[in-house]
Amino acid sequence: MVKKALIIGSGEVTNISQLKEEALKHDFVLCADGGIKHTYDLDIHVDLIIGDLDSVDERFDDFVSKHQIPIEKYPIEKNATDVELAIDYLVAQGFKVITFMGVMGGRLDHTLANIFLLKSLAKKHIVGRIIDEKNIVYYTDDTLKLTKKSGLYVSLIPLSKEGIIVTLNGFYYTLQKDHISFGSTHGISNYIVNHEGTIHIHDGAALVVESKD
User: Fold this and answer.
1) Which of 92, 100, 186, 212 has the fewest Cβ atoms within 10 angstroms?
2) Which tens digits make up the pLDDT trace of 104-115?
3) Can you give the three-state secondary structure of the chain, one letter per residue?
């Protein structure tokens, strides 16, 4: 059985129902520092809190004590963000699917750093995705299969400086070993027309974003 974990960061979470639904789909819920605040008024079982605790609020101590949530505390001066520490813990525990919420919005540097953490997961053969109310973000340098979802666009954003060579099947705009340059918008706003869309990167690496307006 594939072990699935959810990391909740301290960034924006605008859809509380979505957060609760995702928590129920995962075997383990880990809050990165102030991410615990998103669970205060929800019936979500939190298995662990990791971080330096620099972004917790006045409700933190009572909430954690009441629910007896374990904490792994780190110093403020460290060589990794709280989200990366959370990833390291889950990788060590053998989780093969890791979903992130509350890791986008607010500071752009944190948002970008969190998105690029998906690459490190892919290198370890772990499926990673970041979701919020309007987006689902993946990293791939191989093959990614996506199920058709009503109202969602699918965009490819090349990360390699040489761009990507990509084949798309099951999409409105199909490609067959076509080149998309780094910095190009050629891969933006496609959509799946079959039950499933397949993205195969022959060369390079890309972010894949499912988005809705």
Assistant:
1) 92
2) 987 899 899 999
3) CCCEEEEECCCCCCCHHHHHHHHHHCCEEEEEHHHHHHHCCCCCCCCEEEECCCCCCCCHHHHHHHHCCCEEECCCCCCCCHHHHHHHHHHHCCCCEEEEECCCCCCHHHHHHHHHHHHHHHHCCCEEEEECCCEEEEEECCEEEEECCCCCEEEEEECCCCCEEEEEECECCCEEEEEECCCCCCCCCECECCCEEEEEEEECCEEEEEECC
